[in-house]
Amino acid sequence: MNALLLSIGLFIFAWITHVLLWQIYTPKNQSLALIKIFIFVAVCFILLFPSWLVNTFSVPLLIGISMFYLGTLGCYLIVYTAVEETSPSLAIFWALQKNIQKGCTSKELAQVITDDTFIKPRINALRRDGILVQIAESSGHRLTSKGQKAAVIANLISKIFNIKRNA
Amino acid sequence: MHNINSSFINYLPVSPLIGILLDVVAHIILSRINKKGAHVGTQFISIAIGLIGTISFLIFLLWDIELSLLNKISYGILYCIIYLEFAFILFNIINANVSSLRVRMLKEYAIVGEKGLPDEVLLRKYSASEILAVRIERLTAGNQIYLNDNRYFARKGGVALIAVFFNGLRFILLRNKR
Fold this sequence. Notes:
- The complex is a heterodimer of chains A (167) and B (178).
- Chain A contains eight helices and two strands; from the N terminus they run H-H-H-H-H-H-H-E-E-H.
- Chain A is mainly α.
- Chain A has a domain at 2-84.
- Chain B folds into two domains: 2-100, no CATH class; 127-178, no CATH class.
- In chain B, strand 2 (145-148) and strand 3 form a beta hairpin.
- In chain B, helix 2 packs antiparallel against helix 3.
- At the A-B interface, helix 1, helix 4, helix 5, helix 6 and helix 7 of A face helix 2, helix 4, helix 5, strand 1 and helix 6 of B.
- Strand 2 (140-143) of chain A pairs antiparallel with strand 1 of chain B.
């Protein structure tokens, strides 16, 4: 029971730390900053209470607590991508919820989803993350070596899980 | 006998790993049986197979161990949650390959290679109007929105709750920034 409570408590503490930090400063690479915060909190906890941890929990349970914490972090990073960058479906929904009584026409929704709000920010994000690099004297981009590796992984996942089309 | 049973507790962290392995294998097989390939339905079945595997292994390990029922249940919950977390991550990795705009763009750039892709070409291929049309079609087909007198309206349900959740999270995290 203690292991479960500790795992949840540690995550909540790290999340509150992240919320408080975000009120002061929102980093450019938010996902990386999140990973650093959550690992920092876990390391601080281990350094502050090493004897309590060793005396209270067996090694398999400590592994379990670590797995829970890292798993929760992984899930939160996925959820956070929707905070960082709005998905088109959510943007449509927010627009419809704002106009819950009269609804929206296709033209009105077209003002919500534009190249400037959805396509260009994603190109910029890929460039910011070091996936894309601008071609000299051109408005185009190409993959960096990091981007090529990411593309190989994406294609490999598609092959392994037989993903035939992009819906 | 007691020592052997007690040592079973050492293998508890293996249970979510067995579950996720079953999930992956089930997904690989099911996506090849299903003519549509990777599909949300096959993903849910794979997750369920993995969960059954995890629970079965946990029951096998915890059955004879001398622990209170409360402790056995909390161990079970902890490792089931760990499995579900891993399954959620895998689910999203697969789905990102199916529908994420960023991953689709990544693949476009990989096809053209070193010569790169002009922004105009990419914007033509992934025009906002096309994305809007596809999403409206998908949300309508999924019964999340409906059309009445040429105007779209939101229904209460899955996506509506997700939208409220993310709106709340964005408010908490980014209220001073946006």
